[in-house]
Amino acid sequence: MKTTYDVRFSQIQQRSNRGTSVYVARWRVAGKERSKSFRTKGLANAFMSDLRQAAKAGEEFDIATGLPVSMLAPEASGPSFLEFAQAYVLRRWNTSAARTRETDAYALLTLVPALAADAPRCPSAEELREVLRIHVLLPEKRRAELTTAQAAALGWLERASLPLAALGEAHVLRTALNAISVTFAGSPAGANTVRRKRSVLHHLLEQAVEEKVFSSNPLDGIKWTAPKALTIVDPRTVVNPAQARQLLDAIPHVGRKRGVRLKALFACIYYAALRPEEAADLRLRNCTLPETGWGLIVLEKARPQGTKRWTNSGETHESRCLKHRADKETREIPIPPVLVAMLREHIAEYGTAKDGRIFRTGTGGSYSSSAYSYVWQEARKLALTPEQIASSLAARPYDLRHAAVSLWLNVGVPAVEVAKRAGHSVDVLLRVYAKCIDGQQEQINGKINDALNE
């Protein structure tokens, strides 16, 4: 650390920053101009008073920061939150799925700008998020070249980002929690979004504990209640078998070709309870399709959709292991004759992609979520009544999976078997589908009534 006694003080200046008055304290250290902005004149005067008293007492000033040695933060030599956030993302890159990378980055797009000092010439939050999105939070080979304005925004962020150690202070953590509680537009954020972002912050701080920045996770000491998120399936979204058939029959009537090619995909979601990304990667080798009777699907991979900058291949779709499963772990689902027939008919008509995928676009690609969601919404208009269309009944393609699992539970398939076919643990299955298990209330009421009358 280089120090000097060469210090000169200037007057406090009032300026307007985006319509808000700020007060700028100015001084020179070793001939280099220094400044710090404050929201009130009183704060600026107090800061300048501290500087003058330090100089009067004969203290040395740090040339790098412009501050007296006594005012240097103990953590000044540690990483900034920006530096640690970048390292956190890059450290997890090779072992994370594309959606996990995107979730991490989405949380940090909120947290990094929020955890910065109130410095002058602050870029807009949108400018800071763009720099993080296209450059900072990506591996070096994937980073975009920055424009002059973007480089200036990054420079500001590097200077203003709070030290990571500052997150040991309760008021700093509350700033972070307040930031993740609203959207980029400033409206209240959804409960699931808030919980995901807090989870990222908590895990990041766990990494900091491992690196001895903190003795324990400081977030655990903050009394803060996350908003409650809906974790159970709403039975109002679940279609019965007749409604499911009506919807599947309506799909071929949507568009010229897309609906016809997608009917069997939607049928896999309903009759086999596949997740859409599992149906997208279903291959001929995964299917046993006899001419009569039940068949079998042995799932190996899923094909989730992501943003190109976060995927390994740079494409929107890429195959990966099944959700909540180890690499190369499979899942077996017996499938009823009606689905066997649909798959046989689909394969006979359209064949498969070069890699064996059953469901593909006319050019061999994968259907985007927006493409099959459009088809689904149009099919709802054809198959449902106006009241049903306006309701949440089968509002999303994924609701077909909920309908399948609910049906299996309600006809008496043991929960262990349902969980095995659906790719859930039993406890998650029963918690998520608790409100969709019907037909038992009268029997239960009868047992209670018998007990009361004994």
TrEMBL record:
One of its GO terms (biological process) is DNA integration. Residues 233-446 form the Tyr recombinase domain. Residues 315-327 have a biased composition (Basic and acidic residues). GO terms for molecular function: DNA binding. PROSITE patterns: TYR_RECOMBINASE. It comes from the Bacteria. Keywords: DNA recombination. InterPro entries: DNA_brk_join_enz, Integrase-like_cat_sf, Integrase_catalytic, Tyrosine_recombinase_XerCD. Residues 307-327 are annotated as: Disordered. This is Site-specific integrase. It comes from Nonomuraea turkmeniaca.
